[in-house]
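Thread: Newbie trying to understand structure tokens

Hi all, I'm a second-year student working on a class project, and my supervisor (Dr. K.) asked me to get a predicted structure for one chain before our next meeting. I've only ever worked with sequences, so writing a 3D structure as a token string is new to me. If someone could post the tokens and maybe explain what I'm looking at, I'd be very grateful. Here's the chain:
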Amino acid sequence: MPVHDAFFAHCRSALAGIPPWPPWSRGWCAAVAGILEAAAAKPGNVHPGRSFPDLTCADLSAAAIASAGVLAHADRNALGETILAAVRASRRASPSNANLGIVLLITPLAAAPTASLTAAVVDGLLAGLGPADAAAIWEAIALARPGGLGRSDRWDVAGPPPSDIVAAMRHAASRDTIARLWSHGYADLFAGPVADLAQAAAAGMPLEEAIVRTHLLQLAREPDSLIARRHGTAVAHDVSRRAVALISRVGHGTWPAELVAFDSFLRHPRRLNPGTTADLVAAALYIVLRDGRLRPALPFTTPPFPEFAIP
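---
Reply by user tm_fold:
Sure, no problem. This is what the structure looks like when written as tokens:
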């Protein structure tokens, strides 16, 4: 099956599993963002044509829908408890850590009081977190068992929770992009992947292409912190340099073959999974779904998407 067809086939199947939540609501946008991110054939990531031994595209979509049921009420509940409940729901739906990073990124967005999302609104919510939130978030991270964290001399996940989760994230900011966004502000997310995705959608770019292009632009902009933790900063920077070179080839006749070659490089002989970059793309998808900027690019309207068709 061609990659493009596989994207729409997976979306059609996964979207049919979303409960009848109001379209464009918190839960609906969280589920759709996770499904679209999982379905796009981003180099080095899981998608319908590529799996890892411990993770499939179906796992990602199931976790997205399960956690979205919790995120639907993120504006009514404590942020820490929402994250913990979302991770618990995801672990029931998937045998491995499918979406901890996505949950950590999207929950503060879903907790915002309106659909008009800005970095300042999110940063304000994070600044108000207390010890109970920190304890719940610490438990959620331990439950998800993310790979590549290593050990820390302070605020190790295996130890007691911090009283200030933002301070703990600040301590980890140099080695984790999500921790940096939590501690130093969401501005980079809005200025980077969100702007890239919104621009692609406004230009009428096909949906999967827009998602893949956003992923590559972010990988070119910043080394993936999951790759850096697992394989070292030199490897992560090399991957980013290759993404820069690949982006410069967009539009050339060899572009499709070069994209396939980059994907193969990221898989063999080592699994150089740019997983944090994928998490950022999912969060960007949530934002442009929630504020309406992605609507013209979507080939469906409302659940159960009877109009969904392969273009």
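A couple of things are worth pointing out once you decode it. The chain has 15 helices and no strands. Residues 1 and 155 are 47 Å apart (CA to CA). Feel free to ask follow-ups in this thread.
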